Amino acid sequence: MAGYSFTRRRAILLLSLTSVLLITLDLRGSSAVNMTRSAFGAIFRPIESATRVVTRPIQNTWNGITNYNDVLAENRRLRDLVAYDEGATVAAIASVREAQELLALNGLPTLAGISSCTAQVVGQSPSNFTQTVELNRGSECGIKVGMPVLNAAGMIGKVTDVYSKRSVVMLITDPGYSLSVKVVNTPPTTTTTTVPGQVAASTTSTTTTTTTTTTIPRTTTTTIKGFTPGGTAAPTTTQPLVPGETTPTGTVGPNQPGKNTNSPITVPAGADLPLRETGALEGRGLTKNPIIRFIENQPRFGSVAVGSPVISSGGATSLAPPDIVIGTVSRVVKRTGTLGPLLEVKLSANFDNLNFVRVLLYQPITERPAAP
Amino acid sequence: MIERLVLLAEARYTRLILVGLLFLSLQTTIFNEMRPFGVSLQVMLLLAGSCGLAKGSQTGAVAGFIVGLLYDMVLTTPMGLCAAVFAVVGYLAGFVHTFVHESTWWSRMLASLGVSVIGMFMLPIAFTITGAEGVLTTEVFLVAFVVAVFNAALSLPAEWLCNWAIQDEALAR
Asked: What is the distance in angstroms between the Cα of A273 and the nearest Cα belonging to chain B?
């Protein structure tokens, strides 16, 4: 009995020590552990592929039983959405192209200038506690750890492990995910309805303000559904000349916001543009929407409106370039004191049906190797 | 040389690794897609517990460790974490069953249910200890319940399979 107990104790001690050793090695980023995982992946993939083929009929039956009604409803909804989006897409493409041209003219980075690698999602984490997916492309495509991954709808996550022909992506919903983001909030506006040819006047108890709006009659014909001509144009203001100010003649300098020049281009005044505020987006698991912390309580920013777009903020140390669509604000939780509000984000990408994705081969300036 | 390979293939832990690979491929394919109540069923945990039920606590601990290590290879969590948890599950399954005077089919299912619940609570705790955040939520209760019921339902065939896989070499011949 004593010998048996000793053997058992020794076995348990050995297993415990081995576990601790392995965990320590992995947490310290040992290359041996990565190589073992990579080698195991190479051996295991064919077995997994064979099992997938064999079990596909069972999976299809299960999906047929559990998801049939959802698929029908979704199909109807998607048909409506496609019809609506067809027109809006044309307008959006034109707007994006214009925006990219403007950014390029001003020497600002755009997504169009970043190479990417298209990959397919071949599996997801079988664990209930981590949200990762596996892609069928790896370092042979130029993918590196940290690169952002997006699909047609927007950002879905970042690369956390890279092997030669596969890589693992941590989804935005994973509790370990964090990213610097911008919330684009539209400032509160006063709407003035003006009948062409008339002067709109609003009177308060103390002061009287008169706003004159010159409306240029314009006839526009469009057949694109969901597209309002001029709807995407930023509001502009043109201020009259200050007494004593002279109008430059001949070649004029750069346009100044709100200043009248001879140039036909009028730069929108900053006060009317949507305000942006940065924060940190954190995942909270598949069943909960991610949240944004550290949004400051700036009076200029105003209160965050539900539906405000959330995009990546970029920056020298951020792993994602600026202006990747992430989602919209779905709920605003106000907090007392100097703490800013907590924002819940409804993600643009649908994480239930991830198939083809794009890995942006982007590295922040701080991560790029120095030129020789 | 061939004789050695045959002997190696007949070794009980080699058979367990082969069965483990089969279960792992099922885990990453069919049980990854079929998620009743949104929960991924854990057949690797079932295998670890069943080894303990079939062969006792010591063999259960070693078998659980091997099964957990296989699972660690496909997860992004630290290597050795599932191995440690599954070793405890295998050990507990064998240990708990020593208290049963005359084991019946339902006592085995009950034991499998119990150790599965323990395993599904230990996993997020272990993840949290190693630095993961946001995994210890109330959702763990639902996950543990669904996984435990499924594992209890499949414990008898799994135990039979484990009995075959880790039986002595002489008996296997």
From this structure: 37
Backbone phi, psi, residue A348, to 5°: -75, -40
Nearest Cα residue in chain A from B68: A19
Find the residue in A nearest to B26 (Cα): A51
In a domain, A267, yes or no: no
Among A1-5, A155-159, B57-61, which is the least confidently predicted range?
Answer: A1-5
* Domains, in order of start, for chain B: 12-165 (1.10.1760)
Lowest mean pLDDT among A63-72, A231-240, A354-363, B132-141: A231-240
Does A11 reach chain B within 8 Å, measured CB to CB?
yes
Q: Report the predicted TM-score, pTM, of the whole model to 2 decimal places.
A: 0.62
Q: What is the pLDDT of residues B27-54, one digit of tens each?
A: 999 998 888 888 999 999 999 999 999 9
Cα separation, B76 vs A34, in Å, equals 11
Does any domain span residue A69?
yes
Answer whether B116's CB lies under 8 Å from B46's CB: yes
Residue of B26, B40, B72 with shortest CB distance to A51: B26
Per the structure, the count of domains in chain A is: 1
Nearest to B133 among A44, A51, A176 (CB): A176
Q: Which residues of A touch B84 (CB under 8 A)?
A: 15-16, 19-20, 23
Instruction: Determine how β-strand A178-185 pairs with β-strand A148-150.
Output: unpaired
Report the residue of chain A nearest B83, measured CA to CA.
A19
CB A208 within 8 A of CB A348: no
Tokens of residue A118, six digits: 């298209």
Structure tokens at A110: 């755009």
pLDDT digits (tens, 9 = 90+) for A80-139: 888 777 767 767 777 777 777 777 777 666 666 788 899 999 888 878 888 899 999 999
Please provide residue B143's backbone torsions phi and psi, each rounded to the nearest 5 degrees: -60, -50
Per-residue pLDDT at A271 exceeds 60 = no
Sign of the CA dihedral running A39, A40, A41, A43:
positive
**A33 close to B (CB below 8 A):** yes
User: Range of A102's domain?
Assistant: 61-107
Q: Please check whether residue A82 lies inside any domain of the structure.
A: yes
Q: Rounded to an integer, what distance in angstroms lies between the CA atom of residue A105 and that of residue A24? A: 50
The ipTM of this complex is: 0.82
Query: Residue A89 falls within a domain, yes or no?
Result: yes
Q: Are A177 and A283 in contact (CB under 8 A)?
A: yes
Say which amino acid occupies B128.
T
Say if residues A157 and A169 touch (Cβ distance below 8 Å): yes
CA separation for the pair B119, B42 (Å, rounded):
10
The CA-based diameter of chain B, rounded to the nearest angstrom, is 55
Burial class (CB in 10 A: 0-12, 13-18, 19+), B121: middle
Residues in chain B closer than 8 A to A36 (CB atoms): 73, 79
Backbone angles phi, psi at A110, to 5 degrees: -130, 155
